[in-house]
Every structure is written in C-alpha cells, then in structure tokens.
Amino acid sequence: MNFENLHGPLATDRLTLRPFAEADFTAYAAYHALPEVYRYLYAAPPVGDALRAQFDATLQAPFEADGDVFRLAVVTKDDDAVIGETLLKLASRAALQGEVGYIFHPASAGKGYATEAVARMIDFGFVRFGFHRIFARLDAANRGSVGVVERLGLRREAHLVQNDRFDGQWGDEYIYAVLASEWAARKASA
Predict the structure, then answer these.
(1) Where are the alpha helices (DSSP H) in the chain?
(2) From the DSSP assignment, how many helices (H) and strands (E) are in the chain?
(3) How many Cα atoms sit within 13 Å of 120 on the Cβ side?
(4) Cβ neighbours for 80, distance < 8 A, ≥ 6 positions apart
(5) What pLDDT, in 10s, does the model give residues 20-63?
(6) Which of 9, 10, 13, 66 has minimal Cβ neighbours within 10 Å of its Cβ?
(7) d(Cα 119, Cα 127) in Å, to the nearest integer?
(8) Taking a C-beta distance cutoff of 8 angstroms, is the pair 87, 93 a contact?
(9) How many CB atoms lie within 10 A of CB 13?
(10) Which pTM value belongs to this model?
(11) In whole angstroms, what is the distance from residue 11 CA to residue 13 CA?
C-alpha cells in the first residue's frame, strides 16, 4: 500500500473531492453544528473550540497507521460549494481493510451527491491503496445512509442489535462491505 502524495483531488461528473482548506471552515461548521447530522453518529455536535479543533485536525491528519483517516471535502463543480465530506479510515493495514464514511449537509440530500462521492472514494480505496475489503458502519435507522450503500451494491454483513448508546437510547448498527474483486466486477459490467 502506498500512502504517499494522497492529497490530489478526485473528480466525478458533478463533484470534486479534495483536501479541506482553511477557507472551508465556515461550510464545515455549518453542517457539523447540526444536531440532525450527528443524530446517527452517536455524539453531540461539537461546538466552539471543539469544533475548531476538530476541523484543524482534518487539515493535518496522517494516513499511515491503523485508525488514521483520509478525509476529503465534497465540492459541487457548478458552484464550488462544500456540501459534505467523505473519508477512508485505515481499519487494518495488515488485512488491507478500509472503512468508508461520509457526512453531508442535509440541504444536499436527495440529489445523489453522497452516492456519487462515496462511489469515487471506494474506487480510490481499491485502486490507490490496494484495499482488499472496504466496509461501512451505519446506524440502522439512518435510511438515507442505508440507501447510499445499497445503491452502490455493498452487501449487508451484519446487524448489530443495540450495540451503541447515546443520550440514554440504544441504537442498532449495520455493517455493509464490498471486496475489491466484487467492486471491479460490478464496474466492468456497468
């Protein structure tokens, strides 16, 4: 796996996926401050200095060891607006496992942006990093997120029942995954 020079932008028909820049803080804060965005993340939205520290950490995050995260801003080509982010987490370097994730401003929902961006990030994970398997973990109640991974052809591998708790409420989690060979076959038949 080669983790050098990761910061070039990725493109889709309608989007550019690129590293976050200092000027993106306002857009980043606009969706990271929303309770409805964090509803399925089992955390309260960061505020004040915590939000700023979280953003600053994205600007200089390493991607070398298990647990490191490679995060890109998702920007619309038509108006250059940051509408969210997608990420790859290095789940296991030894086992060539990556975890894909994504967070989008609710105003961009229903337009296919998440599906388009996540597909590009999964492709990048297999081609650039040589992952064998990429998986997504999501709250079972998050219908929009379930739709994204199902549209992309990821397989539901697990339903974890009441495996997490936030604000006194238990939540279920789904795990979806795709192997590099499955992703390549799906792309070849498209």
Answers:
(1) 25-32, 35-38, 48-59, 113-129, 143-151, 180-189
(2) 6, 8
(3) 22
(4) none
(5) 999 999 999 999 999 988 888 878 899 999 999 999 999 988 88
(6) 13
(7) 12
(8) no
(9) 8
(10) 0.93
(11) 7
Question: What is d(CA 77, CA 92) in angstroms, rounded to the nearest whole number?
Answer: 33
Q: According to the 3-state scheme, what is the secondary structure of 51-88?
A: HHHHHHHHHCCCCCCCCCEEEEEEEECCCCCEEEEEEE
Neighbours of 167 (CB within 10 A): 9
**Hunting for tokens 């983790």 — which residue is that?**
3
b/e per residue, 82-108, with b = 16+ CB within 10 A?
A: bbbbbbbbbbebeebbbbbbbbbbeeb
- Between CA 137 and CA 90 the distance in angstroms is 14
**Could you report the per-residue pLDDT of 145-183, keeping only the tens digit for each?**
999 999 999 999 999 999 988 888 899 999 999 999 999
Q: By three-state DSSP, how is residue 30 classified?
A: helix
CA distance 71 to 66: 15
User: In the block, which residue shows the tokens 């997490």?
Assistant: 164
Structure tokens that stand for 71 in this block? 């995060």
Domains of the chain listed by start with CATH number? 10-189 (3.40.630.30)
